[in-house]
Amino acid sequence: MTIDAKTASAQTLEICKTAPVIPVLLVESADTAAALGQALVTGGLPVLEVTLRTKAALDVIAAMAEVEGGIVGAGTLLTAQDVKNAKVAGAKFGVSPGATDALIDACEAEGLPLLAGAATATEAMRLLERGYTTQKFFPAEAAGGAKALGSLASPLPQITFCPTGGVSLDNAGSYLKLPNVVCVGGSWVAPKDAVTGGDWERITDLAKTACTKLGGSN
Questions:
Q1: What does the angle CA 68 – CA 65 – CA 133 come to, to the nearest 5 degrees?
Q2: How far is CA 158 from the centre of its chain?
Q3: Which residues of 39-59 are buried (b: 16+ CB within 10 A; e: fewer)?
Q4: Enzyme catalytic residues
Q5: Ramachandran class of 96: left when φ > 0, alpha when ψ lies in -120 to 50, beta otherwise
Q6: SS (H, E, C) 57-91
């Protein structure tokens, strides 16, 4: 089933509205996927971005897709093949660091809503020209942080962003206060040592803290 840009942006926006933080997950083993996903969902962060940066990523997506209440997406989409693989694995949405016409075409053809990345006004305008009003601001801190993103709100009020890249619990609030930000993406809610050590209680606590401090349900 194909999807058009307007529908894709609307669906992505609804996903982004689910919680203040989208955990950005780099998972080395599918064996930990279900428990990790459940820990984050329990903590109030049901939208899970699994980056395609490990050999196990597609298996991780497949496992997390079975977690009740979770909404699993594939991050670091770079090629049309990535999009096809992610969709087959069970991803409900895609995330990319930037955007090319080929990648956008592939997502639309596969019916996969895309949160495409932009770091400049020109990149944001190109995505807007294609019909994408919900975008990822990446790399957020390196691209100027909340001050830079806030400056885009006035000339580009029709675009809503999810900033990712260098976002932490300490600075997430400065982004979420902006009128053009719906949520943030961050890896701090699932630290590598907690994942490899199976410390699911810690991850749930980090998710709950993020929701409490940043305006989520917990």
A1: 100
A2: 20
A3: bbbbbbbbbbbbbbebebbbb
A4: 49, 136
A5: beta
A6: HHHHHHHHCCCCCCEEEEECCCCHHHHHHHHHHCC
> What is the value of pTM for the model shown?
0.96
Give backbone dihedrals phi and psi of 129, rounded to 5 degrees, phi first.
-60, -30
Q: What is the largest CA-CA distance in the chain?
A: 46
Per-residue tokens: 158: 């029709």
Q: Which two tokens stand for residue 6?
A: 């307007």
Residue 57 and residue 32: Cα distance in Å, rounded? 11
pLDDT at 215: 85
pLDDT at 114 over 70: yes
- Ranges of H-type helices in the chain: 5-16, 33-42, 57-64, 80-89, 101-110, 121-129, 145-150, 169-176, 192-196, 200-214
> How many whole angstroms separate alpha carbon 161 and alpha carbon 139?
12
